[in-house]
Fold this sequence. Notes:
Blueprint: H1 4-15, E1 24-28, H2 33-49, E2 54-59, H3 62-69, E3 78-82, E4 97-100, H4 107-112, H5 114-135, E5 139-145, H6 175-194, E6 197-203, E7 205-207, H7 218-227, E8 232-234, E9 241-246, H8 247-260, E10 266-269, E11 275-277, H9 278-289, E12 293-295, H10 300-303, E13 311-312, H11 317-320, H12 330-341
Parallel strand pairs: 1-2, 1-4, 2-3, 4-5, 5-6, 6-10, 7-9, 8-12, 9-13
Antiparallel strand pairs: 9-11
Helix pairs in contact: 1-2, 1-8, 2-8, 5-6, 7-9, 9-12
Amino acid sequence: MFNQPFYRESLAAACAGAKLHDQSILVTGATGLIGSLLVEALAHLNETAGAKLTIYAAGRSESGIVSRFGALAEQPYFHYVPYDATKPVAFDFAADIVVHAATSAHPMAYATDPVGIMQANLFGTARLLETLKEQGRGRFLLLSTGETYGENPNLAEGFSETDHGWIDTMLPRACYPESKRAAETLCASYAAQYGVDAVVARLCHVYGPTFTASNSRADAQFIRKALAGEDIVMKSTGSQVRSFCYVADAVNALLTVLAVGEKGQAYNVANRHSVASIRQYAETLADIAGVQVVFDVPPEVEKAGYTKVTRAVLNPAKLEGLGWTPRYDLWQGLEATYRCCKRE
Length: 344
């Protein structure tokens, strides 16, 4: 699926310093951008460090899991778990760690199914937390989003975990940040009321070679164009500023939060060396791929899924305080993405 020498470098970076050993780990959204690299990083720990991890990869279809993971799905420590975030759960095992990465985090989903987005994010989180409460043990990690902060361009250092912005709750596009906000509060509430060991990772704009075919985000579309040797098409001026993070660094951050994050706390996952406008992101990728950046106006249904936030910069100081250090700046991360996907 990937150019393996380059991809192995990313897996090694994702696993660096990981302290997991002899534990069972359930990953929902196992075929997604972040979930799939996390699953492969856990397998990499088994193969290279003798971690003795049992991996439960949860997704809607077994064929999708097998298609994504290939021979890995045949390993004795790897198990497929049927999972739909909109439906009740009934697992026949108890996991030491649950990483809830299942979500539809892309514009077309926001534009066409905002109700489904909200139900999956809120009800899916509630059911998993209830499962951990009932089994009386286990650590829960929610993959949340920097979109929960909304808009507040006056914070020069970016949003820290206690800062707030504003979101127009009457826009259907708010389905994603508002449901993630509520899911975060559920984590804090289960931790306080029932003692569930829940932590939250607020992810910035994560990119990498593991993006899915259904991903309609601008960065994924840019990568598709670059890999095809075509000009990168921008559907805005690209002036919006974002914190970006290469997926291997993001997964390494998740493993750090799992290892030493404090129960009931949230941690920003962002790279302070990868703050750029969307146009700068596109131009960096174009330089790497040897193509150009051009501009086009999107259809109304696509624009409906776009965020209105002009500056989404996260301050990662709290996560850095746990000992996490990213290894890829924007150029290095985009080059790794391009090289991993460019199977030559």
